[in-house]
Design goal:
With 1462 residues, the chain is of the alpha/beta class. A hairpin with a 2-residue loop joins strand 22 and strand 23. The longest helix has 57 residues.
């Protein structure tokens, strides 16, 4: 049976404590925070020069302690950090100076510029007195020019530790000053090891405007909420510039708002500021050689000047130092390296291991922001641009919605004039061209660019846009098939954002087919020490999702589970058990609501099954589920107390069938009782049976079937129990003799049979649960406890009864025991639909009475004690104290009012002598025998009291008479009562007011509420509780007590003597055969799908959903109209491009005619127009530029050859927008740099040359010695002694990293074979056959490549191919090349191309159609990588294989050649 405690040992419990981020922050503080004196604050002296006084070391010994924070959280943290952290701080203080360095200027060189205050400063920006002493000394060996590489040195850092922002809540952060050359690995180790930060599952780099700017209030709210939400829910790090301005301030305020509005249970947001040390205002407060724990920092915006203050809402600061002052942007290279290093690390979150993804969020910004976005996109980092935030963000948002042909220089100028008006007025033309080029490169990779428009396309939160951007970028990565999908699913699981998984990942068939088996197993990894995987990973993942409170993921997994009814009921039970342990009321209510949802799902699926087939549906109820602890659906519902499920008509029909056994359920009860009393009537047909053989049979089978029916057994036991109670009552009242009579012995025998039956129930274990578990189950039932109590009390009474001296106490105990046996009748009546719910009401009301008695006892005891103390003086008899305090006060509630409360009765007797009995009779107070006056004279006593008749003949003056109460206080002299009469009356009135009116009516109201609550669910409660009774009598022997002893004797012989194992009753628990169980589960899955479809249909029919669908359709129509407009504009651009191509071809034809005429002697060479740039001829393919099939129209020029940063160098190209690529287009400001790489193989390359002196002696458009300088695209132009790229400008002159000016010819052999399965059959996908291609990979490359490339002069095989092929096979492969098929010949869009050197290639396909081909076998046997780091393998041909872009284009042509899948 399923137990939540058992599950707790296997699966981790959901954390009710603060989130992991907060826990890690607490660990970080525990490692670094203590209470030493703070740093000495800077003096009040005004800053001079650049606003920074001479740097000096603060003396920690003379500084007062920091003021304590008013926050209780800070108090707890600081109190925890007082002890045990000094050692950790010492370790930090010793580790940081050894590994973290700062930079200091060690040579003072006077600058030509003065400071703002007119002071002389060094080239580094610091004044002379701010330098070290040796820096101001003369240095003859050093030059006069200040060189940071020579004049700035690294030294151990002197600023690190904790930082507290004075006056701003005293939030404790972490900070460190470090050199710009610090390795990122060291910084990452500091953050995770010494700062105690958990490894993030996401890195959010926020960039934008560094100055304050205005945002729309709604957009600001949406941005702040979304940014913090994605960081808090995914455990992300937010990295900003860290200053208290611009976008950094917006992020800080977002974190501040979240911190103020959230509870301490929610995780803190890790916000890391990477700033330049030389631009931080008041940074001298942070200097402390041994570390500041903490250092006080003052945010002084008014006095910061052109410097900036740190933002108080950031949690960590990395202050990058290059030894200068006042220079911004120093931190950018280190921040870029750090972000790239973190993104290469692996994190495990949510049970899956992923590389830490990174996303760039852009808000407003200027030229620096545009450069940051360009670098991020170039490095493959997705960017989210917040439209409407201003400047660069709005420019990019506008350009992102345009086709590439419309992203032009004029468009950029118009955008800048609108969004960046102030900057546009002073922006030169070259910068506009650069902006245009960068915007084109950014927009070209749309899969990495996400524009967030608040309120557009259903976007409401920035967090969704950020996560969608990451998934969109993941889809664009080169992963094959399910690897890409698995990667996205791991991201969603690590972020715990199932809403993103449902909308972006689980689409159509993926949700139904791919979340199975191994993929689910890969998503859930147990912690070390836990039990290994069982047979059902879907079940394991479902329990894990439920326990981890991942609601949406649990819903998705439940929809994929097989045993869905049992799974839903098990989830309901787990959630109800977890809600009991949850301290938070809201969380507990959410768990109970979710448990009800799972119960409704189980009901829905079971309803579908019951409508389809009643018998098979009832089999689902009793089928033993191995996956859920060898229990059944019915048992799970009972343990979870799912009353709605148990009260379902199908479940009740099954229970009714079990209750009647083999009898028909339509038999009248009077017929059953009549046959019980006279069983021969069974042969008359008075009782009908379900089975045909019983209806036809006339023998003992009918009798056996009748008396084995639970309904018959139940009524026989009722008759037996009533007989037992009657005999028991007769013995107690009539026949209780010193020597037990035969009736009393019959009672003993009867009780012995009851004891045997209880023992049978206790030890009966057909499922082999074990004695301990059976005992727990037995005593968990209230009626079993009552039975055990009654039996033990009977044994105690019997023991006393058999002892002669204790006969009367024994009879008292047995009399009390008779009450307990009578109460047992209530359990019998639970089967009644009328009385059953009433018994539940009584049980619930008993709980109300216990709470009420506590309130009542307060008034009863308080009034009773006060009354007793006022009336009676020093009563020492405990029994009379109890009577006066409790008993009399309690009786007053029920109307026994005090006899003498209003007036004084004639009880003042002043008699001179003894009275006679006659006189006592005249008083009419007591019988003669007890008249005190008959004995002696009566003293004058005043008779008055509350609740007691205090006449002299009914009370004892001294309390000596044990049968009379003590007389009240009286004044014998004045003959008046001594107690205040008015006070007793007031107390009585108040007492009656509160008890009779207030408390009793409160009790009635409580009873009424309980009754109404139970009455509303009467039917459910009765149907739920009848199961236990049916189960009990379904397993009980047919003979009633005391004849049941014979059945017990027979059972004892079978189990103990003959060792015959117990059989499980199949009616309530049935283990099916594997085939039958598989068929039943398949049927259940089919109907579950029907149920889910019905639910989706009902969801769609809701008015809210219809409104949302209409809105989505309208948005779709609008998008289609916009796309149609773009297509039309694209079609126009395509026509213009085609016309341009035709004009270019006509120009080349005319140039050929002119040249032919000139060669024929017609005309002169003067005045010959320059030829137009050569394009691919009509019969040739376009250049290999690696563009995607869906690339925008207007982007037909080479792209990779225009990347701003030339590969493997620090050379930056001149920006060339698309419209300026053709040579015939005027570009007056085009001034590209000249670059030629200094290659080692100088014997095989052209001379370097220069822009002024081009290399001479080279014959272009011809075969120049061993080098063929002819182009596949015809004759190319030569200008100023250098050839011109036939595809247009690239932004760089020279030959770059290539070997030759002009075309550099390469060979790309494409070696393919058919992909086959283990049987040797060709694999297919989408009907088409699948290819495998031979690819290689260099150790320093991230991509695979075709085994081709450049060739040595006079050689036929490429160098790369020779590196993976043994020498003895070279000649054979040359023969294969000659027999191959040419699939492409022409220009290659390569990043190494320049204006004067470019790559052209010939691609030859070598295909092995037969797996038994000898050449293929020889090829495989001769594959060998000479370089240990080089890899070679056969790769499945797919458009997402990690291959170079231009190689993919060649491969696509090969696949098309053979009609294969691509």
């Amino acid at each position: 049976m399923l137990s939540c405690l058992a599950l707790r040992g296997v699966f981790p419990e959901p954390s009710a404590s603060p989130a992991g981020v907060k826990a890690s922050w607490g660990r970080a503080e525990a490692a670094l925070t203590m209470e030493p004196p703070a740093l000495r604050k800077a003096g009040s002296k005004q800053e001079e020069g650049f606003g920074v006084p001479p740097r000096r070391v603060a003396d920690p010994g003379v500084v007062p302690n920091l003021r304590r924070s008013n926050s209780s959280l800070c108090k707890v943290r600081r109190s925890q950090n007082l002890f045990g952290n000094s050692e950790k701080q010492e370790n930090l203080s010793s580790w940081i100076p050894e590994n973290i360095k700062k930079k200091e200027c060690v040579y003072f060189v006077e600058s030509a510029k003065l400071s703002d205050a007119g002071r002389v400063v060094c080239e580094c920006g610091y004044m002379r007195q701010q330098h070290l002493e040796e820096a101001t000394r003369p240095h003859a060996s050093q030059g006069k020019d200040w060189d940071p590489k020579k004049h700035v040195q690294e030294m151990p850092t002197d600023a690190f530790g904790d930082i507290v922002f004075t006056g701003l809540g005293q939030r404790v952060g972490k900070y460190v000053r470090l050199s710009q050359d610090t390795p990122p690995g060291v910084i990452y180790h500091l953050m995770t090891r010494y700062w105690g930060l958990d490894v993030p599952s996401l890195l959010i780099s926020v960039t934008g405007g560094a100055k304050d700017f205005n945002m729309k209030p709604r957009l600001k709210s949406v941005f702040r909420r979304g940014l913090v939400k994605v960081a808090q829910t995914t455990g992300a790090w937010i990295i900003t510039g860290g200053s208290h301005t611009g976008v950094m301030k917006q992020v800080g305020e977002a974190v501040r708002d979240f911190t103020l509005s959230s509870s301490h249970h929610e995780g803190e947001v890790v916000t890391i500021g990477v700033a330049t040390w030389g631009t931080v205002h008041n940074r001298e407060d942070l200097i402390h050689p041994s570390g500041g724990f903490p250092a006080e920092y003052v945010v002084d915006e008014e006095g910061q000047g052109h410097l900036t203050c740190l933002d108080s809402n950031h949690s960590h600061f990395i202050l990058v130092d290059d030894g200068t002052h006042g220079r911004y942007g120093v931190e950018i290279p280190l921040r870029t390296r750090l972000e790239r290093f973190i993104s290469e690390q692996t994190t495990e979150r949510g049970g899956v291991a992923i590389k830490i993804p990174i996303v760039c969020v852009v808000l407003e910004g200027g030229p620096g922001t545009l450069h940051t976005i360009y670098n991020a996109i170039t490095n493959g980092t997705p960017c989210v641009v917040v439209a409407g935030s201003g400047r660069v963000a709005d420019v990019l948002a506008q350009a992102a919605g345009l086709p590439m042909s419309e992203v032009t220089i004029s468009r950029t100028q118009r955008s800048l004039s609108v969004f960046c008006q102030e900057m546009f007025e002073t922006l030169p033309e070259s910068r506009v061209v650069e902006w245009t080029k960068k915007i084109q490169d950014i927009v070209r990779r749309r899969q990495l660019l996400t524009i967030f428009r608040e309120g557009k396309d259903g976007q409401q939160d920035v967090d969704v846009a950020i996560l969608q951007a990451l998934l969109k970028a993941s889809r664009s990565h080169d992963h094959v098939g399910h690897e890409n999908w698995d990667h996205q699913l791991k991201l969603a699981v690590a972020w715990d954002r199932v809403d993103i998984a449902r909308s972006e990942i689980f689409t159509d068939e993926r949700q139904r087919k791919q979340v199975q088996g191994v993929r689910l197993r890969s998503l859930y990894k147990r912690s070390p020490g836990h039990v290994a995987f069982t047979m059902d990973p879907v079940r394991d993942l479902l329990i894990w999702a439920v326990v981890q409170n991942r609601r949406e993921l649990a819903e998705i997994i439940w929809a994929q589970s097989q045993d869905c009814i049992a799974a839903a009921l098990a989830c309901s039970k787990i959630l109800k058990e977890l809600s009991k342990e949850e301290e938070d009321t809201d969380s507990s209510e959410e768990m109970l609501a979710l448990a009800d949802e799972y119960e409704h799902r189980a009901i829905g699926v079971f309803t579908e099954c019951y409508r389809k087939d009643e018998d098979r549906a009832q089999k689902l109820l009793t089928r033993v589920s191995e996956a859920w602890g060898k229990t059944t659906c019915l048992q799970l519902a009972l343990e979870a107390k799912d009353m709605k499920f148990v009260s379902h008509g199908g479940v009740q029909a099954f229970l009714t069938k079990v209750w009647w056994g083999q009898l028909c359920v339509d038999n009248r009860l009077w017929r059953v009782i009549l046959c019980m009393l006279a069983f021969p009537l069974l042969y008359t047909g008075l009782i009908s049976f379900r089975e045909r053989r019983l209806r036809a049979g006339r023998g003992l089978l009918r009798v056996r079937a009748f008396f084995n029916a639970p309904v018959v057994i139940f009524h026989l036991n009722i008759l037996s129990y009533f007989a037992f109670l009657c005999v028991f009552a007769y013995v107690l009242m009539v026949d209780f003799q010193p020597t037990p009579s035969w009736c009393e012995c019959l009672i003993y025998l009867w009780l012995f049979s009851l004891v045997c039956e209880e023992l049978r129930q206790l030890f009966s274990d057909p499922d082999e649960f074990g004695l301990m578990k059976m005992a727990l189950l037995y005593f968990s039932d209230f009626w079993n406890k009552l039975d055990v109590g009654a039996i033990l009390l009977f044994i105690a009474g019997l023991t006393c009864r058999l002892i002669p001296g204790l006969l009367y106490p024994g009879r008292i105990i047995l009399s009390l025991d008779f009450i307990m046996f009578c109460l047992r009748l209530m359990h019998i009546f639970t089967i009644s639909k009328t009385l059953g719910p009433k018994i539940i009401i009584v049980k619930r009301m008993m709980k109300d009475v216990f709470f009420f008695l506590f309130l009542l006892a307060v008034w009863v005891v308080s009034f009773g004690v006060a009354k007793q103390a006022i009336l009676i003086h020093n009563e020492r008899r405990v029994d009379w104290i109890f009577r006066g305090v409790v008993y009399q006060s309690y009786l007053t509630i029920f109307g026994q009012m005090p006899a003498f409360i209003d007036d004084v009765q004639p009880g003042l007797y002043a008699l001179d002598g003894p009275r006679s009995v006659t006189e006592c009779d005249a008083l009419d107070v007591m019988p003669d025998s007890v008249c005190p006056c008959a004995v002696g004279g009566c003293a004058p006593v005043f008779m008055q009291g509350i609740g007691v008749n205090f006449s002299l003949d009914q009370c004892s003056p001294n309390g000596t008479d044990p049968y009379k109460p003590k007389c009240p206080e009286s004044d014998a002299v004045r003959q008046e009562p001594a107690f205040p009469e008015w006070l007793t009356v007031i107390l009585l009135c108040l007492y009656l007011l509160f008890t009779n009116i207030l408390l009793l009516n409160l009790l009635i109201a409580m009873f009424n509420y309980t009754f109404q609550q139970v009455q509303e669910h009467t039917d459910q409660i009765w149907k739920f509780q009848r199961h236990d009774l049916i189960e009990e009598y379904q397993g009980r022997p047919p003979a009633p007590p005391p004849f049941i002893v014979l059945s017990h004797l027979h059972l004892f012989i079978k189990r103990v003597v003959l060792k015959i194992p117990a059989r499980r009753r199949k009616q309530l628990k049935n283990k099916l055969e594997k085939n039958e169980e598989a068929a039943l589960l398949s049927w259940e899955i089919y109907l579950k799908e029907s149920y889910l479809q019905n639910q989706q249909y009902q969801q769609k029919q809701r008015p809210e959903q219809k409104i949302q669908d209409i809105g989505n359709k309208i948005s779709t129509v609008v998008d289609l109209l916009e796309m149609e407009s773009l297509k039309r504009s694209g079609s126009t651009g395509q026509r213009l491009a085609s016309l341009e191509e035709q004009v270019a071809q006509m120009s080349r034809a005319l140039h050929w005619v002119i040249k032919a005429l000139r060669d024929g002697g017609f005309g002169s060479e003067e005045g010959i127009p320059a030829p137009a740039p050569q394009k691919a001829s009509e019969g040739q393919d376009l250049e290999l530029d690696g563009r995607q099939e869906e690339e925008d129209v207007g982007d037909s020029h080479h792209v990779n050859a225009r990347h701003l940063l030339y590969p493997d160098s620090h050379v930056t190209r001149f920006p060339v927008p698309n419209e300026k690529v053709p040579w015939e287009t005027e570009f007056p400001i085009y001034q590209p740099p000249f670059y030629t790489d200094d290659r080692k193989d100088k014997g095989f390359v052209d001379p370097a040359g220069s822009a002024r002196e081009p290399p001479s002696g080279i014959s272009y458009n011809a075969v120049d010695g061993p080098t063929d300088r002819r182009s596949f695209h015809g004759v190319y132009a030569v200008q100023d002694g250098l050839p011109l790229n036939p595809m247009g400008r690239t932004g760089l002159r020279g030959r770059g990293a290539l070997g030759c000016f002009g075309p550099n010819h390469t060979l790309q052999p494409v070696i393919t074979r058919w992909r086959r399965n283990q049987d040797g059959a060709i694999c297919r996908k989408s009907i088409k056959k699948m290819l495998e291609v031979l690819v290689v990979k260099h150790p320093l490359s991230e991509h695979w490549a075709l085994p081709g490339g450049s060739r040595d002069p006079g050689e036929m095989l490429p160098r790369k191919l020779k590196q993976v092929l043994r020498r003895e096979f070279w000649s054979s492969f040359q023969n294969l090349l000659t027999q191959g098929t040419e699939v492409y010949k022409g220009y290659v869009d390569d990043p190494r191309n320049t204006d004067n050197a470019w790559i052209e290639t010939v691609a030859i396909s070598i295909h092995f159609p037969d797996q038994s081909d000898m050449d293929l076998k020889r090829l495989n046997s001769h594959l060998h990588a000479c370089d240990p780091g080089m890899s070679v393998r056969w790769q499945v041909v797919d458009k997402r294989i990690p291959l170079y872009a231009n190689h993919k284009t060649i491969l696509r042509k090969v696949a098309a050649l053979y009609g294969a899948f691509y």
